[in-house]
Design brief:
Elements: H1 14-23, H2 28-32, H3 36-41, H4 44-53, H5 57-66, H6 74-107, E1 113-114, H7 118-125, E2 136-139, H8 145-154, E3 158-159, H9 170-173, E4 176-180, E5 187-191, H10 204-209, E6 212-214, E7 221-223, H11 226-239, H12 245-257, H13 261-270, H14 274-288, H15 300-315, H16 326-338, H17 342-351, H18 357-362, H19 373-389
Parallel strand pairs: 2-5
Antiparallel strand pairs: 1-2, 3-4, 4-5, 6-7
Helix pairs in contact: 5-6, 11-12, 11-13, 11-14, 12-14, 14-15
Organism: Halobacillus campisalis
Pfam family, one: NTP_transf_5
Protein name: Nucleotidyltransferase family protein
Length: about 400
């Protein structure tokens, strides 16, 4: 990948700049070489808040020990250490639950792929304690979704999401349902797609054929193949504006561990994610000094997309905390649209013609007449819009 035009990072908070410098360190000597002025300018309470927002404190823990501890307040070191140790117990708990779920699903003949969690931490960092995860993300065939729900219910899990749907639009407008165990508090997201639609992506059978076995537990645990994992991580990170450094650090680790990037980029192009992959490379290279693949060429479009994503780092946006401020919501909608290829934009615009559950709320019809919502949708949308403006 040729040298890109530098991104404008001047508005990044100094606390985040220090976090990035620490994350780039692979050896104690590098940590010792960090500009001392960074430590003097930091608001340490905000530093802690940033490490938690970006979910990167386990990775920073050892790197903070490499620094001259006289430059860092003791309460900061203790706080990061407590967060790090708490994450160890959580990841061990998730590892145990992951093994149980794999065994239970296998016994019921339900193929199960783990998308993130301990398998991803082990794959990218070689240690489950170095990456955070609040839940387990699993992928099943959509035809076996009801069987998966029955099994999770039997194991004590309770469904958190009750999706409103009409004419089976949930199958492509949504991509997962969340279940939580009331006793263990473990959360499991059951996916039937990698990403919400309308979007082209590999089917479950393809993903299963390319699966790999993780060595995290003694029980066989299956995860995505290299190409599929790369597609999933960059599409997931881009959909959330790369608003957490953890996702870009994952890309940095991928660049260090994986090979055959020419084939991987061809694979991304097949599903319309080539420019998103280049965006991820631009950000990882600029922030973490990643070594970009030689066979990958940058584009002006991907550079613009990378610069757009810097906004999320500047403002410490939490896209999971709704409702979002209006300016952030508008910016995010526009950014997501800019991430789409021309074909994806057409599909996205056409998807608005497909009925929404709100149409049934506006004009309730018997289920056998729901097909009428197709011709009625523009009028129902216009009616709601006029009522809202009024």
């Amino acid at each position: 990948m040729e040298k890109s035009i530098p991104l404008n990072l001047s508005k990044l908070p100094v606390e985040l700049k220090l976090i990035i410098e620490l994350a780039k360190c692979d050896f104690p000597e590098q940590a010792a070489g960090i500009d001392p002025n960074l430590f003097e300018e930091v608001n340490w309470d905000l530093f802690i808040k940033q490490t938690r927002h970006h979910r990167i404190y386990p990775y920073l823990y050892k790197r903070l020990q490499w620094c001259d501890t006289s430059e860092i307040p003791q309460y900061v070191l203790r706080t990061v250490e407590v967060d790090y140790k708490r994450n160890i117990f959580l990841m061990l708990q998730l590892s145990g639950e992951m093994q149980q779920l794999s065994c239970q699903f296998m016994n019921q003949g339900i193929p199960l792929l783990f998308l993130k969690g301990p398998v991803l931490a082990s794959e990218l960092y070689g240690d489950v304690s170095l990456r955070t995860s609040n839940d387990l993300d699993v992928l099943v065939q959509i035809e076996q979704l009801s069987l998966a729900e029955k099994l999770l219910t039997k194991l004590g899990y309770q469904k958190d999401d009750y999706i409103q749907t009409i004419l089976n639009d949930w199958k492509w407008r949504h991509h997962h349902i969340t279940y939580t165990h009331p006793v263990t508090k473990v959360k499991v997201e059951v996916h039937w797609r990698l990403n919400p639609g309308p979007a082209k992506e590999p089917g479950f059978q393809e993903l299963w054929a390319r699966k790999r076995m993780s060595s995290v537990t003694r029980q066989p645990i299956y995860m995505l193949g290299e190409k599929d994992l790369f597609l999933f991580l960059i599409s997931h990170g881009a959909r959330h504006g790369w608003s957490r450094l953890r996702w870009l650090l994952d890309v940095h680790q991928l660049l260090k561990k994986h090979t055959q990037w020419g084939r991987k980029m061809e694979f991304l192009g097949k599903y319309g994610y080539l420019h998103v992959g280049l965006q991820a490379f631009e950000l990882s290279t600029e922030l973490f000094d990643s070594t970009p693949p030689l066979e990958v060429k940058r584009s002006r479009h991907s550079h613009r997309l990378a610069q757009q994503a810097v906004y999320y780092l500047e403002t410490m946006v939490n896209l999971h905390s709704e409702p979002l401020p209006k300016d952030i919501a508008v910016y995010h909608k526009r950014h997501l649209f800019s991430l789409m290829t021309g074909q994806q934009k057409i599909c996205f615009i056409l998807s608005f013609l497909y009925p929404y559950p709100q149409d049934a709320e506006t004009l309730p019809l018997p289920k056998f007449l729901h097909f009428l919502y197709f011709p009625l949708r523009p009028f129902l949308w216009g009616w709601r819009k006029s009522r809202k403006l009024a």
